[in-house]
Amino acid sequence: MIKKLVISSLLIGSLSACEGMNTAGMVDAASSLFQAATINDADIQALGVQSQQQLDQQNTVADANNSYTKRLDNITRNLRSYNGKALDYKVYLNPEVNAFALPNGSIRVYSGLMDKMTDPELLFVIGHEIGHVMNGHSKSQARTNLLTLAARKAGAASGNSIVASLSGNEIGTLAHNLVNAQYSQSHELESDSYGLKILQENNYDKSHAVSALRKLGSGGGGFFSSHPDSARRADRIEKM
């Protein structure tokens, strides 16, 4: 609260000589920046839920009787939760080769990816996405996107609270950014290690990770653009 007041006071002081400025709006926008920077885990989880709900509405979700759903249920039968974190899986009926994870543990797999992968290869990709959740990468991306949105609000002096309310369009933008999150090389390697760990726990060897990454490295767009250097990561695992 003290930091919030200090930020607001400094901003008022810097604008006091400027006539016609929306001072109140700028103070509220600065408050939004502070809230985004200090957002807690519960708020991040709530953002994940909102993003998941909007994305599920925008995509065609395979129902429980769909063959894709049954296959994914079988592959993830031992992964309904991991280290105490509840995980939720759904299939998007979309030919794009893609998958993503949200900070609340929602993992979405596209039918195009499932068509391209064997079950063990798909298990590695899912394990990789679980790694992004368990290592906090998805949470970090959500926080970064909130800060970006708050900065834009500050620039526009909108005066809206970043935590109290987000418009549907803003949630949509954040959700889109989470689906297409550009992870760092270190995050990718950490998540690959998680995928390998999950393969091992299900009695598969690393060859399935290598072949999955080789397949991902042979295309473009979707998963390829948000998870770069697939071929190089395959070489790394192969040489382990």
Task: Describe the protein's topology.
Blueprint: H1 2-15, H2 23-37, H3 41-58, H4 67-75, E1 81-82, E2 85-86, E3 88-92, E4 99-101, E5 106-110, H5 111-116, H6 119-134, H7 137-156, H8 168-179, H9 185-201, H10 207-216, H11 223-226, H12 230-238
Parallel strand pairs: 3-5
Antiparallel strand pairs: 1-2, 4-5
What is this structure, in a nutshell?
By secondary structure, the chain is mainly alpha-helical. Helix content is 62%, strand content 7%. The longest helix is centred in the middle third of the chain and has 20 residues, at 137-156.
What can you tell me about this protein's structure?
With 240 residues, the protein is mainly alpha-helical. The protein contains twelve helices and five strands. The strands form two sheets. A three-stranded mixed β-sheet has the order 3-5-4, with helices on both faces. A two-stranded antiparallel sheet has the order 1-2. Strand 1 and strand 2 form a beta hairpin. The longest helix is centred in the middle third of the chain and has 20 residues. The radius of gyration is 21 Å and the shape is globular.
Shape: globular
Largest sheet: 3 strands, mixed
Strand content: 5-15%
Which consecutive residue ranges, at least 5 long each, have pLDDT under 50? Answer: 1-33, 155-164
What order do the SSEs take from the amino end to the carboxyl end, as H and E?
A: HHHHEEEEEHHHHHHHH
What strand order characterises the main sheet?
Answer: 3-5-4
Q: Which radius of gyration do the C-alpha atoms yield?
A: 21 Å
Overall pLDDT confidence: 75
Using DSSP, what is the number of strands? 5
